[in-house]
Amino acid sequence: MQFETTKISGVFLITPKRFGDARGYFVETFRENLFEREVGAFHFVQDNQSFSAEVGTVRGLHFQLNPKAQGKLVSCAAGALLDVAVDIRKGSPTYGQFVTAELSQENGCQLWVPPGFAHGFCTLKPNTVISYKVTDYYSPENDRGLLWNDPAIGIDWPVADGQAILSDKDQKQPKLSDLDANFVYQA
């Protein structure tokens, strides 16, 4: 596995090695000892998957409050998506900045989104399946979000505001300036 640092400390792009032949390929998608050595000691407790039929489906930006904050190891099992991680840790030198990565079935890349980041994605192909491991269980009372198209963040989404397919919930999330300081940067 190849672990690449991104412009925001703690967020990693991970590319597992594929072993292929005429039948297809084999890939080790997660290996705890390598992940711990390169990223840190995180314990995954739940695996999630979502399916989006249409191109331009935006899900996010989501996070869970402390003490149920989640780190997410995100991959694309089918199709392709633009994955986004936004730093929401107050006092961070990269507060409000984001990392994007194209994840697809073809490239096999994964994005590690640590606790203290809002996460979202936009589908680039029809019938896209996103899979992700999380470090804490889903907690409805701690479930929060950030407005996907907040101009203060400035994410260059691959879909226009009026064309994005969104849930009612994601259309009404607060802006970065309205978030409480649940996450505080620790140098």
TrEMBL record:
<dbReference type="InterPro" id="IPR011051">
    <property type="entry name" value="RmlC_Cupin_sf"/>
</dbReference>
<dbReference type="GO" id="GO:0000271">
    <property type="term" value="P:polysaccharide biosynthetic process"/>
</dbReference>
<dbReference type="Pfam" id="PF00908">
    <property type="entry name" value="dTDP_sugar_isom"/>
</dbReference>
<feature type="site" description="Participates in a stacking interaction with the thymidine ring of dTDP-4-oxo-6-deoxyglucose">
    <location>
        <position position="138"/>
    </location>
</feature>
<keyword id="KW-0413">Isomerase</keyword>
<dbReference type="GO" id="GO:0008830">
    <property type="term" value="F:dTDP-4-dehydrorhamnose 3,5-epimerase activity"/>
</dbReference>
<dbReference type="GO" id="GO:0005829">
    <property type="term" value="C:cytosol"/>
</dbReference>
<dbReference type="InterPro" id="IPR014710">
    <property type="entry name" value="RmlC-like_jellyroll"/>
</dbReference>
<protein>
    <recommendedName>
        <fullName>dTDP-4-dehydrorhamnose 3,5-epimerase</fullName>
        <ecNumber>5.1.3.13</ecNumber>
    </recommendedName>
</protein>
<comment type="subunit">
    <text>Homodimer.</text>
</comment>
<comment type="function">
    <text>Catalyzes the epimerization of the C3' and C5'positions of dTDP-6-deoxy-D-xylo-4-hexulose, forming dTDP-6-deoxy-L-lyxo-4-hexulose.</text>
</comment>
<dbReference type="GO" id="GO:0019305">
    <property type="term" value="P:dTDP-rhamnose biosynthetic process"/>
</dbReference>
<comment type="similarity">
    <text>Belongs to the dTDP-4-dehydrorhamnose 3,5-epimerase family.</text>
</comment>
<feature type="active site" description="Proton acceptor">
    <location>
        <position position="62"/>
    </location>
</feature>
<dbReference type="InterPro" id="IPR000888">
    <property type="entry name" value="RmlC-like"/>
</dbReference>
<comment type="pathway">
    <text>Carbohydrate biosynthesis; dTDP-L-rhamnose biosynthesis.</text>
</comment>
<feature type="active site" description="Proton donor">
    <location>
        <position position="132"/>
    </location>
</feature>
